[in-house]
Amino acid sequence: MKFSFELKEIIVRALNEDVHNADITTEAIFDTYQEGKAKLIAKDGGVIAGLEVFQETFLLVDRTLRISFYKKDGDLIRKGEIVAEIIGNIASILIAERTALNFLQRMSGIATATNIFVDKVKHTKAKILDTRKTVPGLRLLDKMAVYIGGGQNHRIGLYDMFLIKDNHIAGAGSITKAVKKVKEYKKKNNLNCLIEVETKNFEEINEALQCGIDIIMLDNFSVNDTKKAVNIINNKCKIEASGGININTLVEVAETGVDYISVGALTHSVRALDLSLLIDYAK
After folding, report:
1. pLDDT, tens only, 114-173
2. E-assigned strands of 78-157?
3. Cα 138 to Cα 130: distance, rounded to the nearest angstrom
4. pLDDT for position 1
5. CATH 3.20.20.70 matches 118-268
6. How many Å apart are CA 243 and CA 262, to the nearest integer?
7. CA distance linking residue 57 with residue 96, whole number of Å
8. What is the arrangement of strands in the sheet containing 215-219, beginning at the earlier edge strand?
9. How high is the mean pLDDT in each 10-residue block of the chain (283 residues)?
10. Which residues are catalytic?
11. In this predicted structure, what is the pLDDT of residue 122?
12. From CA 62, how far away is CA 275, in angstroms rounded?
């Protein structure tokens, strides 16, 4: 992974939030250089994600730290496994510890949840998508974690895909009027972005099909209505199922023949994976 300016800014901002101008406890105890070794240990099983972010957090504090990994992003880990070791200035390790773990635990939790969803529908053509329901300021990391877990990223933000939702439709007057405006804007600005329309009933599906778009979103459709919608659309465009889909309803929805299933819970309410950094020795 090449670290973008945006990613480094996220890490720096998080470190500044935690350290501010000093780690007073560490400064009080370690007033001179003291070498130490720390082990990153899995206290949960799951999919590890964010190891490079974890590493960069420590290196932004101290470039002399030596970090060895025994796993890579996307690997399954078991409870009790040693994932990584860090050797160097013990004060630097302690300063970066919590910020690095916060990133790694959240990203691994997202990747683990995504992997469970992906595995459940692997017998279908449905792909698991994330949403924009991410922690403000951490979207890049949240979406990286979904990808590492085997999911696909929907639009990153408001700038890389046209998604005409119910409020756009209400404001424009109809799906037809909204799509017409979007196509004019797309042509004028020479954009190569997909156009997706959110629909709430069969009437809206038929109107969207007449407009010639790339993806139709079925918002909060029942399983039976989703099956009917798949037959109506009949491969004229891609289909995304969305709205309240959870691990218990996932397979039924996937087996209707939709192309995508978007799941906000992957990022908006995920449980972090339990990981711990323990000092092994200090010289």
Report:
1. 999 999 999 999 999 999 999 999 999 999 999 999 999 999 999 999 999 999 999 999
2. 82-89, 127-129
3. 14
4. 46
5. yes
6. 8
7. 6
8. 127-129, 260-262, 238-242, 215-219, 195-199, 162-164
9. 78 96 94 93 97 97 98 98 97 97 98 98 98 95 97 95 98 98 98 98 98 98 98 98 95 98 95 96 69
10. 98, 133, 165, 198, 219
11. 98
12. 22
Task: Give the CATH class of 5-114+271-282.
Answer: alpha beta
Q: What tokens were used for 171?
A: 């404001």
Q: Where are the domains of the chain?
A: 5-114+271-282, 118-268
Closest CA to 267 of 156, 109, 41: 109
Phi, psi of 68 (to 5 degrees): -115, 130
Task: Report the pLDDT value the prediction gives residue 27, as an integer from 0 to 100.
Answer: 93
Classify residue 169 as exposed, middle or buried by CB count within 10 Å of its CB (0-12, 13-18, 19+). Answer: buried
Beta strand extents in 200-274 (DSSP E only)? 215-219, 238-242, 260-262
Q: What's the number of CA atoms in the CB half-sphere (13 Å) around residue 126?
A: 27
How far apart are alpha carbons 181 and 176 in whole angstroms? 9
